[in-house]
Amino acid sequence: MIFPAEGFSKFEHCPRLPQLERTFQPPRIPVREAVKLYLESGIRSIMASQSTEPTVEAFLSEAAATGYLYPEGESYTICQDHASWLDGALRLIAEEFQPMEQLPLYKIGEHRVNVEGWDDVERAHIFRATHDLSDRSLRWPELVLSAMDGREICIHAYKMSSVRSGRLASPLVMAYQHPSFQNINYRLAKLDGDKDFKKSWKRIGRWEIQPNPLWEEWRRGIEKDRCIDAIRETYTVSPTLDTEQRDRLLFDVEQMCSAQEKPSIFPRYRERCGSCVMNGLCHGDEYSRSLYTPVNQAELERYKNRLEKL
Ligand code: SF4
Fold first, then answer.
1. 153 is a domain residue
2. What's the rounded mean pLDDT across residues 178-202?
3. Residues in contact with ligand 1 (CB, 6 Å cut-off)
4. Which range marks the domain in which residue 93 is found?
């Protein structure tokens, strides 16, 4: 079986979660998680020299069809803000990177592990959305690469804040306009010593401005208002594991893969389940469970066998 390295982070949250996510599609997922998935597929398009517009369209189509789970606020606005963020982040990545090869699958014991990352021959690259650009704690994708690849790893982090007051604040999404003079050019951020910029300026989403600004114009605004550092951060990780550290890391990966193959040995949690998308499946009634769509028949059979034993 192939295990995504991202799944090890989920395993640390709940050992049952990665396997349930492989088996079932929840009725709806949080909009933030959806953006992360579409960011991943958009980057695959970029690396295949394809346009990213269909990715953003697919994100909006899914919003219109099944819908997402939204934080408090007006769902349409939050959805459009996230679509603008996805569009902007993908455009920046397309602007900065040439197509690269996907990293290979890594064989660890009996298992194979997929790190969603890219190879420019000299280094490995990982892209991620984060809500804190200063957070450089090591995650499982770079841990696996440290043990299995050994080259320098470039992490490209794109800031996706949490929704506040019903809006997604990011210079990829939001501009500021003078409250009375709407014909005045919008601004994306305040510069040091900038006396003209007032807090009373009205926030407005890129998608709300009429006529809709071209990306090239918005990109010039990012440059002019010097806000690229508030959007993305790139840093490198240089693996420094000795043989013992490497062996211990690989042992842990192998154990997590084996444990994911038999998640019913772990109890269902309770305290952390309220915010989990699998709550209805783990703790719901028959109707709640029926809302989850099986996406993997082989996994489903194994899941049913285990249920019979509970
Ligand atoms: S609902 Fe609870 S037990 Fe089920 S996967 Fe989520 S965190 Fe784990």
1. yes
2. 70
3. 14, 16-17, 20, 268-269, 272-273, 276, 278-279, 282
4. 2-171+227-302
| CA 277 to centroid of ligand 1, rounded, Å | 8
Rounded distance from Cα 248 to ligand 1 centre (Å): 28
Tally of structural domains, the chain: 2
Q: Is 70 exceeded by the pLDDT of residue 191?
A: no
Cβ-contact 125, 117 below 8 angstroms? yes
Q: Which of 17, 20, 29, 307 to mutate to test the pocket of ligand 1 (most atoms within 8 A of CB)?
A: 17
Regarding whether 210 and 68 lie in a shared domain, the answer is no
Tokens of 30: 């949080």
Residue pLDDT, tens place only, 226-249: 999 999 999 999 988 899 999 999
Whether 103 and 167 share a structural domain = yes
Q: Could you report the per-residue pLDDT of 74-106, keeping only the tens digit for each? A: 999 999 999 999 999 999 999 999 999 999 999
CB 112 within 8 A of CB 64: no
**Backbone torsions φ then ψ of 87, nearest 5 degrees:** -60, -45
Ligand 1 pocket test, candidate residues 10, 13, 260, 279, most atoms within 8 A of CB:
279
Instruction: Supply the DSSP string of 132-143, one letter for each residue.
Output: -TT-----HHHH
Give the whole-angstrom CA distance, residue 271 versus residue 55: 35
294 preceded by a cis bond (ω within 30 of 0): no
Does the CA dihedral 15-19-20-22 come out positive or negative?
A: positive
pTM: 0.91
Mean pLDDT of 279-295: 94
Asked if 266 and 273 count as a contact pair (C-beta separation under 8 A), the reply is no
- Establish if 162 belongs to a structural domain: yes
7 C-alpha to center of ligand 1: Å?
Answer: 14
State the DSSP H helix or E strand holding residue 84, giving kind and residue range, or none if neither.
helix 75-96
The pLDDT mean for the chain works out to 91
